[in-house]
Specification:
By secondary structure, the protein is mainly alpha-helical. The protein has one domain. It contains four helices and no strands. The longest helix is centred in the first third of the chain and has 25 residues. It starts with a helix and ends with a helix.
Length: about 60
């Protein structure tokens, strides 16, 4: 169950990142914002935001089994 929750979290994060990439291509504000050095240093810490997503998937999967 833990492994499946991690897999779904990875896929969720990947889809969200892809959509943000598409939005950045169509938005001058996001495109210029994303390449600031201060923002690039913060990006690895954004992975902590995926922990509530993993908890949600784990809860959903625990209710399913």
């Amino acid at each position: 169950m833990q492994l499946e929750a991690m897999a779904w979290t990875y896929l969720t994060g990947f889809v969200v990142a892809a959509w943000l990439g598409v939005a950045a291509a169509f938005s001058q504000t996001i495109a210029h914002w994303a390449f600031r050095p201060a923002v690039l240093l913060v990006i690895p810490y954004l992975f902590f935001l995926l922990e509530p997503v993993r908890a949600g998937w784990l809860y959903y999967l625990s209710r399913r089994y």
